[in-house]
Amino acid sequence: MTVTVRREKPDQRRHHRVTAPLFLRVGDDGPTVRAHDWSLGGFRVDNYPLELPNVGSEIDVSMTLPFQGFDISFTAKAKVVRAVPEIKSFAVEYTEIGERELELMHHFIEDLVRGAMSEVADSISRIDVPITPVSTEPDPESTTVVVEKKLPVRQIAWVGIYSTIGFLVFGYMALVLYSNIFRMEVQTAVVAAPMVEVRAQGDGQISFVRASVGEQVGAGDTIIYFADYDLERQIDLARLEISRREAELNQLLLKRAAELEKMNDYAAVGLKNIEQVSIDIEALQADQKAAKARYARTRQLLKEGWATRTQLEEAAQWLSSSRAKLKSRRLELQEQIKLADSGVGKRFFNGRELLGEVGEVDANVKLARYQIALAHQKHEALLKHRERLAIRAPFNGRLAKMPKPQSAAVKQGDVIAVFENDSERKVFAYLTQDEVIKVGMGDKARVFFPSLNVSINADIIGIDRTKGFHEEVARRYSWRSPDDRSAEVTLSLGDQLPQETRDAITAGLPAVVLFDARSTSPILAAIWRRISALLK
């Protein structure tokens, strides 16, 4: 029997397709045909003698796989995924197939692909392993008579005593070895926190204190009110300036009221003058009318010979004079009316000059109000500056020290308050040069506070081996003996502490630190890493 394995270009198929013989029968009464090719996902049939099943329909398939003289038969359910009527071909994919059958087909295909054709009986035996039931009945031959014996109480007691003593001795030895080899205890440790000193910006006095020493404060809280002598003098002068400007404004307002009253009187006089001029105009109009009549009559009499030329000239002169007076009074009336309309309540024209200072007083009132606003702004700026001089907490922490009491006089540069930063509180441990090489960055440590009887976990965040060698003042390094604790290790207490514990751990508190001692030998360190990995 020739078996071929067809390999195609890479595609999206999940299984190998083989052309090994696989006989199929669709339904109970369908003909037996051979699959054109097949895989673990389905098969394809060409030249099907009956009507092709519909695409999407489910069919029952009986399959027979001949292999080395065996016919392995099994059933499955499949779904028609493709049908080609021209060549009487259709393809299906399995929807229900047994695990044993699928394992057998997988084993068959893998052997074909690898070229190792093992016996199918071996495949079946590996898939279907028989289980032999075991009898639960006791074997009558194994039953024996148990002879009751007395317990050796004395021996058991001594064994227990010796075992307890041995356990305690070995436990103590193990604890001593662990404490001296794997653990390192350092008693020269202390709690420290950053301290910030607040100094006076000028000469003055502490006017009011809102917090007491040791009290917790929040960032930005006003703690101490500070009164600067020069600033307070400027604030007092600013208040006096406001009062002076307001007094000047009141004086100008009184003057303006008097001027307005005066202008009312002038307005009454102006109206009277206008009425007088109007009466004069009416009189001049009558005089002009009489002069016209006399001139006309004198000229007529001159023509008739009853009047002289001198009389006619006198009549003409009278007419011309009356016209001029009337025109002058009319112009004067127009000017008074115009001045009265433009300067009502502000100015008055008495015929020679303009009287009234209401406009000037109004300008001075506006200037005085502007100066008062400026004085208020200056006063507010000084008050804000005084508020800025108040001592505020620079961070969330504790008021650790206040050298100057309330109402005390201070000079520029004097320390007014000292704040302790709670959030950056750390433990500083001082080690010898032999001890510092046994700790590492990021290691965990146990910190014990004897005065509080409290133990907490801490992280190593800083190691400075030369801290004790450096002289800050001389700016140089000095020699230290090996027994000197010249190395500094910084430990962080973390943010998960209860508030009570955090408040109790203050700066300057002594502490004992237990470090996990690292090995200084590379070989021992490698062995310990292997052991730790195995234990994990």
Under CATH, the topology of the largest domain can be stated as Four Helix Bundle (Hemerythrin (Met), subunit A)
Uncertain spans: 118-134
Please, what is the average pLDDT? 77
Count the beta strands: 25
Helix and strand content put the structural class at alpha+beta
Radius of gyration: 61 Å
What number of domains?
A: 4
Main sheet record: 7 strands, antiparallel
- Indicate the proportion of strand residues: 25-35%
- Given the structure, what is the number of helices? 9
Give the helix level as a range of percent: 40-55%
* Top CATH class of the largest domain: Mainly Alpha
The coarse overall form would be flat
- Major β-sheet strand ordering: 2-1-5-6-7-4-3
N- and C-termini, Cα separation: 57 Å
- What's the CATH architecture name of the largest domain? Up-down Bundle
Protein model, in words:
It is built from 9 helices and 25 strands. Helix content is 41%, strand content 25%. The protein is flat. With 536 residues, it is α+β, with helices and mostly antiparallel strands. The chain has a 7-stranded antiparallel β-sheet, with no helix packed on it. A 6-stranded antiparallel beta barrel has the order 8-19-24-21-20-25. 14% of the residues are buried. It folds into 4 domains: 23-127, predicted glycosyltransferase like domains (Thrombin, subunit H); 196-226 and 387-418, RNA polymerase II/Efflux pump adaptor protein, barrel-sandwich hybrid domain (OB fold (Dihydrolipoamide Acetyltransferase, E2P), Beta Barrel); 232-369, Four Helix Bundle (Hemerythrin (Met), subunit A) (Up-down Bundle), CATH 1.20.120; 421-535, Beta Barrel (Elongation Factor Tu (Ef-tu), domain 3), CATH 2.40.30. Helix 1 packs antiparallel against helix 2 and helix 4 (229-304) runs antiparallel to helix 5.
